Amino acid sequence: MERPHLLFVTGKLAETALRHTLLNLAPRAGFDYSVTVLPITVAALAATPWIARHMHIPEGISRIVLPGLCAGDLAALQALTAVPVERGPKDLRDLPDFFSASKPSDTGYGAYDIAIIAEINSAQRLTRAELLTQARSLAADGADLIDVGCDPGDAWAGVGDAVKTLRDVGLRVSIDSFNTVEVEAAVQAGAELVLSVNSGNVTAARSWGCEVVVLPDMLATLEGLDATIDKLTAWGVLFRIDPVIEPIGFGFAESLGRYLEVRRRYPGAEMMMGVGNLTELTDADSAGLNALLLGFCQEVGVRSVLTTQVINWCRSCVRELDLARRLVYHACTRRVLPKHLAPELVLLRDPKLREHGPAVLADLASHISDHNYRLFAEGSRLHVVNNKMHLEGTDPFVLFEEMQRREPVDPSHAFYLGWEMAKAVTALTLGKNYTQDQELRWGFLTVPEESRSQKGGETPPLPKSL
Fold it and tell me: Which of 49, 138, 298, 381 has CB 3.0 to 4.6 Å from 118, enough for a Cys bridge?
């Protein structure tokens, strides 16, 4: 079968790096290639109509790949040829992943079967507007039920109205209380799940007409669980079982064993896990913990999880759980590792670190003919390159002083360079990829960054990276 012949479009500065990348990539990806170098320093600064006027397309090309940052409608180029024209990645170092991702992919990713119950703690202390705002935000992040959390003490007289407020806008609601007065008012207003019952209040559950979460009377031994379940089963009350996960240092390992034991006793029963007992009570970022706990739940058949977003490091737990439940479902149902599937939960570091390498940076420095600065962060060092210098080091203040000594920088560019160097140092510190004039990647928390040229600032346009 004849190999496709791809035409890659680039500018003068990126030519060497692109050819080096394609030399290794093309044999593995199964294509032949040509490179056309436009009469411009950085091709990413060129719009597609300009590229169309300055580009020659040789015979035998089966596909044209532009730099991902090229602006403009592809129709201007597509009018010149019958072969497909597309944008590649923003950074040429991502070409290997780009061609891997462009192969036919499994379209089944994204399904899940674990429900997320998001608790609003101390709901009675909130105004109705505050309650509704929090609930809508949780639902938008992926919560299936909004759990109205009640404080211990006297019964909350407004609980029914609070539940009705949420039900009136189409939200599903659960009630978290052992106070039977509060629970009865909540279920009458439309709550569909009660957290929780044991032998102390199981009799009241007979008349609520909704599903309940069952707890053991004694966690360590599961004492009382079987008797409570027997009563609910006899009365026809739907239930899900929560053996209760314990914090680290307070029986965490044994509590996981209780989930396995309950599944052994009740192979077909619905189960729930309150993951906040671990995420809220551990000095660790919550994303990894949530992914691990949902992996356990998926394998054991725990089909609902309860979470809170009280402490700051848990502020995005619902969104994390929504991403994690899709990841673990795909891994378990397809029997594949939960790796290289969806990187949104890789927040602190990047999935793969890309580097140009010393040779490419040296070649780049030798070809730059303008005074605009190019910044790079790799090999544990910062690099500053323009037509008069190639500086490198670990301290941005020292580098900037040397830049000022050689070629004074005006205040506007100084601010820009300070911003970019701060990003570059952050990338070096954490093991992230840095590309000048682009946002750092933070998984699902990434905030898109608009470049100076896109904003149309008054200072001279600043170059994009390779």
Answer: 138
CA gap 252, 248 in Å, rounded: 5
Q: How many domains does the chain have?
A: 3
What single DSSP character describes residue 125?
A: G
Domain range for 172? 115-345
The pTM for the full model equals: 0.84
| CATH number of the domain to which 36 belongs | 3.40.50
* Boundary of a domain, candidates 46, 69, 101: 101
3-state secondary structure of 362: helix
Do 119 and 242 belong to one domain?
Answer: yes
Task: Tell me if residue 176 falls in helix, strand or coil.
Answer: strand
- In angstroms, the first-to-last Cα distance of the chain is 34
Find the CATH number of the domain harbouring 262: 3.20.20.20
Over residues 197-209, the pLDDT tens digits come to: 999 999 999 999 9
CB under 8 Å to 81, separation ≥6 — which residues? 57, 61, 64
Same domain, 47 and 133: no
Do 171 and 266 belong together in one domain?
A: yes
Residue 15 has a CB neighbour count (10 Å cut-off) of 20
Which whole number is the average pLDDT over 227-248? 97
Q: Is the pLDDT higher at 458 or at 394?
A: 394
Report angle CA 294, 272, 303 to the nearest 5 degrees: 60
Taking CA atoms, 64 is separated from 61, 72, 80, 216, in Å, by 7, 15, 11, 64
Confidence of residue 106 (pLDDT cuts 50, 70, 90): low
Residue written as tokens 């039920």?
145
